[in-house]
Design goal:
This protein has one domain: Metal-dependent hydrolases (TIM Barrel), CATH 3.20.20. It is 33% helix and 20% strand. The protein is built from 16 helices and 18 strands. The termini are far apart. 52% of the residues are buried. The structure holds N-(aminocarbonyl)-beta-alanine and zinc ion (ZN) (3 copies). One zinc ion binds next to loops. It catalyses: 5,6-dihydrouracil + H2O = 3-(carbamoylamino)propanoate + H(+). GO terms for molecular function: dihydropyrimidinase activity; metal ion binding.
């Protein structure tokens, strides 16, 4: 009955999904179309003590049960955001959304679980984990952790085992960019991949060539381009493609599954497509910003006018007009939001299964923080919002355009990790009205940041109700969240992605024996 090793899932067993006893509510969601990753049916959903106990038509209940009418609406698992950064210290500051404000925003947008990244403390994974557990004390929804690996020695290798066997971590992220801070070498990546494989943990990469980015940044500064436009210009798609290809090939050499986070370009996507076609186990995660934004319209109109006047005076004859546009700090993230064309290609890749699930990389800084880089784009803290907007934007961009089905939507936003509306599942559920509409604005959103990269966007569909562990936390545009009610979800190692790895290893070893035998009989 459970989705535990859903064919397409990066998932983990349902039994580990917490939030069981925190509520004694009884809830009946009546008459909706229940959506799961592979099917839809009109049915009632009955929830008791935070657990789904029945999914079938015409459920009769006592009067003490809270009724929610879902007629004409979809009832689906709450979204799971596989990529967020809450309360992260980064680039000389800390993200403005912490585990409470970020999660509150998530719940208002129909996401009921997220997986954040533990950043090690002085290289120590366990210390980093303890620090993040503390940060997450105010959680109001379920969360899990990946862990970043930022250096390599015996103790890191040992701590990876502790993280997997004692702390419920089954994924590690390697940054191939951010030279001088988080970036790791190929040697470290290789060792990390080997270690991930032996522990049954999923290796994740931020794929950009950090050395080349460093050169690209110098190039911009030498040209006198210090504004935010220098950010995207200094790290073009080719550098994302290169690192993606390198990580994929190293993972192939080690024979371990790979998860490429925030796929932002055609270049990276095509490397993933090629690897998957060859049978390699590579997961590609586009993020909302890469799917729905492109760099047109990201330029400051005041500056564009000024730049036009400047260029008409031909002072800047050595720099193209394009480079003179002022890119707005708010959009600075890595890899950068690309020019038009990459967005549509990523959408197509998602709709055809080349890419599998959508994250946000929610990593917010307010305009004061973004202004740290006012004179030098290299100092602008990298990151954009999305945790509240993801479900709406993916629905509007992918389902309303006819690119994916409603059941695909559930797979891409939730089930690929674990979400499902099944008897025995935890009741993290949303009611989605496809005939209503949403509008995004920086003044109305629930994130603490004062800007929103999707400000002004409107579209079809609306998350009307969010239910966490059987409790209604979002209804009638009102949040009722309880700090401290969220639970940490442990994730066991050796997900389905590891099936067959040992067989492939055995085949490889026996293939080595043939030439070795030939060598000995010939000599
Ligand atoms: O710009 C970004 N993506 N900020 C968050 C850190 C990361 O690289 O994921
Ligand atoms: Zn499936
Ligand atoms: Zn990253
Ligand atoms: Zn990230």
């Amino acid at each position: 009955q459970s989705n535990q090793f859903c064919d397409a899932g990066v998932g983990y067993p349902e039994s580990t999904c917490g939030f069981s006893s925190s509520s004694s509510s009884k809830l009946l969601i009546k008459g909706g179309t229940v959506l799961n990753a592979h099917q839809q049916e009109v049915a009632d959903v009955y929830v008791e003590d935070g657990i789904i106990v029945a999914v079938k038509p015409n459920i009769k209940v006592d009067e003490d049960v809270t009724l929610l009418d879902a007629t004409g609406k979809y009832v689906m698992p709450g979204g799971i955001d596989p990529h967020t950064h809450l309360a992260m210290e980064f680039m000389g500051t800390e993200t403005i959304d912490d585990f409470f404000s970020g999660q509150a925003a998530a719940l208002a947008g129909g996401t009921t679980m997220h997986i954040d990244f533990v950043i090690p403390v002085n290289g120590s994974l366990v210390a980093g984990f303890e620090a993040y557990k503390k940060k997450a004390k105010k959680s109001c929804m379920n969360y899990g952790f990946h862990t970043a690996i930022t250096k390599w020695d015996e103790s890191v290798s040992r701590e990876m085992e502790i993280m997997v066997k004692e702390k419920g971590i089954n994924s590690f992220k390697f940054f191939m960019a951010y030279k001088g801070s988080l970036m790791i070498s190929d040697e470290l990546l290789l060792q990390g991949l080997e270690r991930c494989k032996s522990l049954g943990a999923l290796a994740m990469v931020h794929a950009e060539n950090g050395d080349a980015v460093f050169e690209g940044q110098k190039r911009m500064i030498d040209l006198g381009i210090t504004g935010p436009e220098g950010h995207a210009l200094s790290r073009p798609p080719v550098l994302e493609g290169e690192a993606t290809a390198r990580a994929i090939r190293l993972a192939k050499f080690v024979n371990t599954p790979l998860y490429v986070v925030h796929v932002m370009s055609i270049d990276a996507m095509e490397e993933i497509a090629r690897a998957r076609k060859s049978g390699q186990k590579v997961i590609g995660e586009p993020v909302v910003s890469g799917l729905v934004l492109n760099d047109s319209g990201l330029w400051d109109p005041d500056f564009v006018t000024a730049a036009k006047q400047e260029s008409s005076r031909t002072i800047f004859s050595s720099i193209t007009f394009y480079q003179l546009y002022k890119y707005i700090e708010m959009y600075v993230m890595s890899p950068p939001i690309r020019e038009s064309g990459h967005d549509k290609a990523l959408q197509a890749a998602l709709s055809t299964g080349v890419l599998q699930l959508v994250g946000t990389d929610h990593c917010t800084f307010n305009s004061t923080q973004k202004a740290l880089g006012v004179d030098d784009f290299r100092k602008i803290p990298n990151g954009v919002n999305g945790i509240e907007e993801r479900m709406h934007l993916v629905w509007d961009t992918m389902v309303e355009s006819g690119q994916i089905s409603v059941t695909d939507f559930v797979r891409i936003t939730s089930t690929e990790w674990k979400g499902a509306i099944l008897v025995g599942s935890d009741a993290d559920i949303i009611i989605f009205n496809p005939n209503s509409s949403f509008e995004i604005s920086a003044s109305m959103h629930h994130s603490r940041t004062d800007t929103n990269v999707y400000d002004g966007r409107k579209g079809k569909g609306k998350v009307e109700v969010t239910i966490v562990g059987g409790r209604v936390v979002w209804q009638d545009d009102e949040l009722k969240v309880v700090p401290g009610s969220g639970k940490y979800i442990e994730m066991p190692p050796f997900s389905y992605l590891f099936n067959g790895i040992d067989k492939a290893d055995a085949k490889y070893l026996s293939s080595l024996q043939a030439p070795v035998k030939r060598y000995f009989t010939a000599s």
